[in-house]
Amino acid sequence: MNRSQPLHHLIVGDGVTALALVAAIPLASGDRLTIVGRTAHAFGRGAAYAADPNETPWQFAYLLNSPADDIDPDFADWAAENFDRIRAQMEGRSPNWLGAAQDLVAKGDFAGLNYPRSTFGDYLEAQGKSALAALKDKGVDVAVLSDEALSVTRNGAYLDVALASGRVLSADRVDVAPGAPTTQRIEGDDSAFSVPTLFGYEEVVAEHVRAGREIFCVGTNATMLDSLRLCQSLAAETDISFVACSPSGRLPAALIPQLPRRSFTPQPNTGHTTAASFLSDLQEQIQAAENDGLAIREVRAGMRAFFVENSITDFVAAPEEALKVPAKLRHWLRAGTRDSIHDFERLSQTGQTRLLSGAVEKIESHDNGAVVHYRDAEGNAQRHETGLVINCSGSVMTAGHDPLTQNMIDRGILEVSRAGYVVGDRCETAWPNLRHLSPATAKIGAEILPMPLFDAHLLRVWAARCYG
Predict the structure, then answer these.
(1) Do the beta carbons of residue 419 and residue 324 sit within 8 Å?
(2) According to the model, what pLDDT value does residue 401 have?
(3) pLDDT band at residue 2, thresholds of 50, 70 and 90?
(4) In what order do the strands lie in the sheet with 447-448?
(5) Architecture, CATH, for domain 8-62+116-181+399-467
């Protein structure tokens, strides 16, 4: 690295994306690295895998959405090496994760387990400590600040980032590495009998679960499944009353690993002029794979690996058509936690869990509960009386960004589309020394991302390309 002066590199973020960037950034002895985030003291965990300082019944109930080797092969190896400690930590907990894991453990398939999020957080924090220690050994001056970045301005060749504490940090380069935007809001979702999201509102939800009230989730996604596990951690299953509502009225497919592992490599034709033609080509190959005994887990993994090496625009040249592919592809590959989906299906047989098909329009709170207003599959207005409503609907790109990202959007530094964030070839924004990478990034340069960057190894791939 031929530089006459040391540089100061600032990373705003403290989770999986920030950890991937730390591994990729070229820093030399004498350089400075500053990391800013609300949970930066446990760098690597971020908000999604943050440790609760006071242990709660649900702390170890939340599970990763995918098997370990789908999320990060390195994590799968770490979990297998540390399984005795994990087993001891999970002994006697409800829901019975060890019981659900028994068949895979007996086969030695530790990589196929959906581990608790807290376990993945332990791994990420250990990786974070190791990465920062390696930089310090290299002679890099590392500072970690538990703070929140609010805005960025230009100061000559430098960037000044203002923090919530009142401090202003000046850096040569800044990488912004936030999580996804927050859950889209629904009218009436923050009242005595409704909460706008699960995370951060667990104590409120717990109070209603313990009182034996029905829990109504808007959405049938991973957050809904976490909500069910919170209920299971607090109440006997016979005392649970749980409803989930979404337009499809269906659960995600369960990600079930097979031994031996089988692979799927799509081989689509090039030269498609429309998204519909390309998607039809992929659909035929997915159907053939399923007919050959492959399940959603193998199909998803194969698609993800394929599009790491190949671009959608290699097959659909017209950008406006290529942009239509990701939404459909993500819908086809929608899947979730094996343990939680199987529990939901099992509990539905005794009436403890139910699915509704409908689009929720608003929530009204009354003296002793809530009323959910929704449109059923035929478009008819319906109402459902319940105990507590949890908004588990997905994120929306028009609101709910972290303060710094919102500041960048408002000032035209960062582009955002309905699909997600749009950045340059190396994740650059309108300012070349200011980069942005997130699980919600939809387009990098000419590359249209087919799936969200939620898995650690995918984030590492793109972080490396930012600085490769």
Answers:
(1) no
(2) 93
(3) low
(4) 415-416, 421-423, 441-444, 447-448
(5) 3-Layer(bba) Sandwich (3.50)
CA-wise closest residue to 438 among 407, 411, 410, 466: 466
- In 45-140, beta strands by DSSP E: none
The answer to whether the CB of 351 falls within 8 A of the CB of 238 is no
Q: Helix (H, G, I), strand (E, B), or coil: what is residue 175?
A: strand
As its CATH architecture, domain 194-252+336-391 has 3-Layer(bba) Sandwich (3.50)
3-state helix, strand, coil in the chain (%, to 5): 35, 25, 40
In this prediction, residue 88 carries a pLDDT of 98
Domain ranges, ordered by start, for the chain: 8-62+116-181+399-467, 194-252+336-391, 275-333
Place of tokens 């939404």: 327
Do 8-62+116-181+399-467 and 194-252+336-391 have matching folds? Answer: yes
pLDDT of residue 360: 98
Kindly report, residue by residue over 101-128, the tens digit of the pLDDT: 999 999 999 999 999 999 999 999 999 9
